[in-house]
Amino acid sequence: MQEYDEAVLNCFLEKQLQLFPEKIAGTIDEAEAFLEECMAVVVDSVDEVWEYFDEEGIDLEGQDKEDILTASEVFEVGNGRYLIVES
After folding, report:
1. What is the spatial distance between Cα 71 and Cα 68, in angstroms, rounded to a whole number?
2. Contact 12, 83 (CB under 8 A)
3. pLDDT 10s digits, 27-53
4. Whether the predicted model's global pTM rises above the 0.85 cut
């Protein structure tokens, strides 16, 4: 099971509407419970975001690594890290 630090949890709380039509979580604890339930992943680089989608079998043909960062399920945490939440 992945652990989510404060930066990741706050990022999800602030940006959750980019993926969902309404808020899923209103507190840090709710955010953590939701991310654990959906098995969200934190990666350390754009390359790892690309690898994640590739391993999940998502067609990446015609996209570059920067394009993948605009996917609604990719949240930029900061410090080069990204949270990936599959809805």
Report:
1. 6
2. yes
3. 999 999 999 999 999 999 999 999 999
4. yes
